[in-house]
Design a protein that fits this description.
The chain is an all-beta fold and 135 residues long. The protein has one domain: Hexapeptide repeat proteins (UDP N-Acetylglucosamine Acyltransferase, domain 1, 3 Solenoid). 0% of the residues lie in helices and 34% in strands. The chain contains no helices and 19 strands. The strands form three sheets. The protein has an eight-stranded mixed sheet with strand order 1-2-3-6-9-12-15-18, with no helix packed on it. Strands 4-7-10-13-16-19 form a six-stranded parallel sheet, with no helix packed on it. A five-stranded parallel sheet has the order 5-8-11-14-17, with no helix packed on it.
Length: 135
C-alpha cells in the first residue's frame, strides 16, 4: 500500500505536506479543512487554511489558494483557480479555467462561465444562466 501523502516544496523553499483526500485523491494541505463528502479529484490542490464544505465537487487541476471558503454543493470545473481568501457561496458553479481573484465573493447559486475572470475583491451574483444580477 502506497503512502497517503506527498511533500511539495513551495516557492519560498518551505516543504508542505499534502494528504490525498479519500474521496477523489486530490491533495489537501495540512491546515485545510475538507468535508468527507466533498469530492476532490486527483490533480486538485487545496492549500492551508482553505475550507471545502459538504457535497462540493472540486475538479481535476483546480487550485484553491489559502483561506478560500468553498460552500456546500459548489461545483468547480477542471483547471479553475480560486484565489486566497475568496468565498464561493452554496450551489455556485465555477467553469473550466475560470479565475476567482483574491478576496472575491461569488454569491450562492451563481454561475461563473468557462474562462471567465472575477477580479480581486470583486463581488458577483448571477442567475443560473450566468447573467449578472443587480447588486
Amino acid at each position: 500500500m502506497g503512502k497517503n501523502y506527498v511533500d511539495i516544496e513551495n516557492d519560498r523553499g518551505e516543504t508542505l505536506r499534502y494528504r490525498k483526500h479519500a474521496n477523489g485523491r486530490g491533495l489537501i494541505a495540512n491546515g485545510a479543512k475538507v468535508h468527507p463528502t466533498a469530492l476532490v479529484e486527483a490533480g486538485a490542490y487545496v492549500e492551508p487554511g482553505a475550507q471545502v464544505a459538504a457535497g462540493a465537487h472540486i475538479g481535476r487541476g483546480v487550485w484553491i489558494e489559502p483561506d478560500a471558503v468553498i460552500g456546500p454543493e459548489v461545483e468547480i470545473a477542471p483547471h479553475a483557480h480560486i484565489g486566497p481568501g475568496a468565498a464561493i457561496g452554496p450551489r455556485a458553479r465555477i467553469g473550466v479555467r475560470a479565475f476567482v481573484g483574491a478576496g472575491a465573493r461569488v454569491a450562492g447559486g451563481s454561475l461563473i462561465g468557462d474562462d471567465q475572470s472575477i477580479g480581486d475583491g470583486e463581488a458577483v451574483a448571477t442567475d443560473r444562466r450566468g447573467l449578472h444580477l443587480a447588486a
